[in-house]
Amino acid sequence: MRTRKLIAALGFAGASMLAAAAHADNYEIDGQHAWVTFTIKHGIYGIAHGQFDAVKGAIVIDKADVTKSSVKAELDVGSIHTAFDQRDSDLKGPDFFNAAEFPTISFESTKVEKVDDKTGKVTGNLTISGVSKEITLDVKLLNEAQAPWDATLTKAAFSATGKVSTADFPMAKAADGFGLGPEVEIAIDLEAVKK
User: Which end of the chain is flanked by fewer CB atoms within 10 Å, N or C?
Assistant: First the structure.
């Protein structure tokens, strides 16, 4: 009798785990449809703009419990683009992102909070030049749907915004010296493909 109860309990637990797992959808960031842009105050003059052209990562969406969702993303520092080659070279250099020693910028979520059905807050560790700091992004789910041209393709689209302090990372001294900052505003628009 005990054996039967144990088997039944294990079966119920396994079924519950499978049911929970069924709510989680795994997505891969579509690098061809991902824009990570930033703006920063340029001394007394105005606002400077730039973006990273190479983005990759994974997103897990748990519809049953949004707090179990997660995000991992990576930017290629060498793909930074500001529409001026000399500035791009400077930003890749040791005074700023130091791409030779730290070729990637990464973000890994530690907490996901639901605000409403379409918006939330994603908190995680942003790592730049070997230094990790916690930031929070305001995230909006724009759409999640099957592609009309391919019944096997489901995509989700997101927008996110956040701020980073230059003083939190090794580039702070150089940023102060060049009259940049003190904050960088981040804007992210991306699509992700369901796996």
Answer: N
